[in-house]
Amino acid sequence: MNLGKINLITPPDKLYNSNVSYLLVHPSAKLKIQFQQSLKEINEDINVYVYDNTESDIDWLLGVSQTTDFVIIDIDNCDYTTKLFVSLMLTQPNSYYLTTDESTPWSLISRNRIYDLAWINEVLNRNDEDDDA
Q1: pLDDT band at 24, cuts 50/70/90?
Q2: What is the pTM of this model?
Q3: What is the largest CA-CA distance in the chain?
Q4: Is 58 strand, coil or helix?
Q5: ∠ at Cα 65 (86, 75), nearest 5°?
Q6: Structural domains of the chain in order of their starting residue, each with its CATH number
Q7: How far apart are CA 24 and CA 7, in angstroms?
């Protein structure tokens, strides 16, 4: 079995291909580990865009969030500037978010709240089945 190739992309770069793409916005160390564990048996090539605490390119973030298949936002880990744009990204159906903040009504903007990344394996397996068909 061949494992797929994972392209890791950070600002200001972009990669234009037909791979399934993920954007991780300010992922915590725990989220990065969960994501890595989810991908260790992947058979297809994917793109992983990472926008973390060392980045400050909002234009890149918003542009990439419009073109990737899945956007995963760790709201609790976002800096002040990124949080200003979280609500905009959450209006997209491909955006999912994690938070422990129960006082901010993020659920009014998006029902795509997640608590872990277990669902990624289901998505990847579904994509593998589609490729086989």
Answers
A1: very high
A2: 0.89
A3: 46
A4: helix
A5: 30
A6: 6-121 (3.40.50.2300)
A7: 13
